[in-house]
Design goal:
single chain, 206 residues, alpha+beta, Arc Repressor Mutant, subunit A, Umud Fragment, subunit A, 9-stranded mixed β-sheet, 3 helices, 18% helix
Length: 206
């Protein structure tokens, strides 16, 4: 497999793209990238994006938006990391790991994301789990599996939205419990045939 070489400017662009996806939840605009790379013209930023497309560092999704699929910032320790998909908004009717939901690939230590298991990352929203040290904006590493034990922190797909809650298994039903200092959050009651999407491994404040 041929090694992909990036210029210093291309590496810098990848870092800014990754940071925009993590902190803003989206790929940066051409003008935003122009400012970050200290260019005077948006055309120069467009050329960088075109180069990253040719080198298959980014690609266009079906909806026309760009997606970061490789991250070269820590290649020197590549043997000790695996790429884990960062999931964006879960669209109606799509599974969590549909290609349309993947915003970027994030290198994660194999000590956290242990092969051969599969993992994904969600960006936490709100304060419904702050008593379990999952806060708004945190990246949450999830082990992909369709089962969980009592009191596990699970990812559930409810009304086409991914939610993180503590699972309590009863004889007749399953409760998804918030663990929050904000008492407006209420339990979700589900039937026993409910299936989880994954379990929480670690929350990563950013």
């Amino acid at each position: 497999m041929q090694e992909i070489l990036l210029s210093n400017k291309e590496l810098e662009a990848v870092r800014h793209i990754r940071n925009s996806i993590i902190h803003k939840g989206r790929f940066p605009s051409v003008r935003e990238l122009m400012v970050e790379l200290r260019y005077r013209s948006p055309r120069s930023a467009s050329v960088i994006i075109e180069q990253l497309l040719k080198k298959r560092i980014v690609r266009k999704k079906a909806d026309g938006n760009l997606q970061l699929i490789k991250n070269f910032e820590i290649d020197q320790s590549r043997a000790q990391t695996v790429d884990v998909p960062l999931i964006g908004t879960v669209a109606c009717g799509l599974p969590i790991l549909a290609e349309e939901n993947i915003e970027a690939m994030i290198p994660v230590s194999v000590k956290l994301a242990k092969p051969p298991n599969k993992y994904f990352i969600l960006k936490a929203k709100g304060d419904s789990m702050n008593e379990r040290e999952i806060n708004d904006g945190d990246m949450v590493l999830i082990k992909q599996q369709n089962y969980a034990e009592n009191t596990d922190l699970v990812v559930a797909l409810i009304d086409d939205k991914a939610t993180i809650k503590e699972m309590k298994i009863n004889s007749e039903n399953i409760l998804l419990l918030p663990r929050s200092t904000n008492k407006k959050h209420q339990p979700i009651i589900l039937t026993r045939d409910f299936m989880v999407q994954g379990i929480v491994v670690s929350a990563i404040p950013i």
